[in-house]
Specification:
It contains 5 helices and 2 strands; from the N terminus they run βαααααβ. The chain is mostly helical. The chain has a single domain (6-68), classed as lambda repressor-like DNA-binding domains (434 Repressor (Amino-terminal Domain)).
Length: 86
């Protein structure tokens, strides 16, 4: 099974919001705790609606919570690269 190319900051965001539990976040956005686990471990990519609900739960934008991973160079997509890397 290949890893998704979408990374996220869900775990970090939960801990920076009073160490919110996976169960509490699941309750807030209307999914199961298992869905939150699958998102955090990269086994599941959220629908646009769920991504927006998660971002709203943390009062941030979707792109602050989710990002493209560049699997070839090990950098997150959108990061500045030097001319040598391009």
């Amino acid at each position: 099974m290949t890893d998704l190319q979408i990374g996220n900051n869900l775990r970090r965001s939960r801990f920076s919001h009073d160490e919110m539990t996976q169960a509490k976040l699941a309750e807030i956005v209307g999914v199961t705790r298992q869905t939150i686990v699958a998102l955090e471990t990269g086994r599941y990519a959220p629908s646009l609606e769920l991504a927006m609900k998660l971002a709203a739960a943390f009062a941030c934008s979707v792109d602050e919570l989710f990002f493209w991973k560049d699997t070839e160079s090990g950098h997150a997509a959108g990061q500045a690269r030097t001319e040598k890397e391009i």
